[in-house]
Amino acid sequence: MGTAESLELLRSSVREFAEKVIRPVARRIDEENEVPRDVLKQVADMGYFALRVPQEYGGPGLSTLESVVVVEELARASGAIAIMATVSGAMVAYPLVHYASRDLKERYLTRLAKGSIGAFALSEPCCGTDAAAITTRAVQDGDEFVITGRKIWITNSPYADFFLVAARTGTPEQRHRGVSLFVVDRGPCVEVSKLEMMGYRGSGTSEVKFNDCRVPKENLVGELNGGFKIVMDALNEGRVVTAATALGLAEAAFEDALEYSKKRESMGVPISEHQMVQYLLAEMKVRVEAMKLLIYEAARRVDQGDPDYPMWSSMAKLAAAQWGVDVARMAVQVEGGFGYSKESLVERIYRDVKMVEIGDGTNEVQRMVIVRTLLGRIRAPRR
């Protein structure tokens, strides 16, 4: 997991990169809903799209806690870049590391390490939260599977070199017992339509159609009809990294509001001297530090293999989502009319952080996971 000293060295390195390369173009990314290709390459060259790829495949081989620190620091500069790193580096890499065949690992983990970007294609128009109801189909035809269907809200899609696709290989009645996971390369059969989203603009959230995509049977990740467990495992682990995007955004919002309050004057004094503004600043600081403590503890439990880590990951994401939105809202309030304008940083953060209440399982789903763990119905898989 790394010592406290090594974590701070990692943090310092990522922050320096983010301040130099990402922050200057963060507003442009949001306005244009696209990441400049040169920035994308620099982020990939740093290994941030391959966070969990082991060193034996050329990746950084970061722990969950180390990945959290990287994503937190990226999010301080750009929520879009941070969520892209979360998806490719954790949500895509993690299932490949733990469930893919040796051949798939050699082919795709190595590609991630060399700068390729992965996308995690799960959600569909019919069924976001109810992932067991997906309708995208994978039909075996000799030594290949033919994949047909429509996915939506898929991060990284315009930039992705390959997709991790959940598809139905059983009957609809089998629900989660009839879902498999495949690696699908980008190609003519993959149709990507970028969506105009409220936040995390530039992260490539898209509708993706798979039009009779033929993939070799060797591209099956794990066992046939065993994909749903892999997806849930990836979500349980990845949620704590997603929570780190909210942490970085909240830290940036708090710091911006604090500095603004020292400079903006009202009634002859900086607004930081007014008691109600002080109240907001104190509340924001408490939430930021509480988020950090819970997220870091959840990450440690994932790394230690705590059988209850799904609950901790869900608690971290639920708290980060709620408190992150609170901090952003209060930052806008502190900055007043300026905070509500497109000229401010906190306006963008407010739009970005709202997604954490929805993506990778809504707040309501997180509460279900927490309670089911308490009742002994969810345990982390043994490896």
**Shape label:** globular
Count of alpha and pi helical runs: 11
Mean pLDDT across every amino acid position: 96
Give the biggest beta sheet: 4 strands, mixed
Strand order of the largest sheet: 1-4-5-8
**Helix percentage:** 40-55%
As a whole number of angstroms, the C-alpha radius of gyration is 21 Å
Number of strands: 10
Sketch the topology as an H/E string, one letter per element: HHHHHHEEEEEEEEHEEHHHH
Distance between the termini: 18 Å
Contiguous runs where pLDDT drops below 50 for at least 5 residues: none
Percent of residues in β-strands: 5-15%
- The helix/strand class is alpha+beta
Could you explain the architecture of this structure?
The structure is a single chain. This protein has helices spanning 4-22, 26-32, 37-45, 64-77, 79-99, 102-113, 227-263, 275-304, 309-339, 345-354, 363-374, and strands at residues 118-121, 137-141, 144-154, 162-168, 179-185, 190-194, 206-216, 220-221, 265-266, 269-270. It has 383 residues and is of the alpha+beta class. The strands form three sheets. A four-stranded mixed beta sheet has the order 1-4-5-8. Strands 2-3-7-6 form a four-stranded antiparallel beta sheet, with no helix packed on it. Strands 9-10 form a two-stranded antiparallel sheet. Strand 2 and strand 3 form a beta hairpin. Helix 1 runs parallel beside helix 4 (64-77). The longest helix has 37 residues, at 227-263. It is globular, with a radius of gyration of 21 Å. It starts with a helix and ends in a 9-residue tail after the last helix.
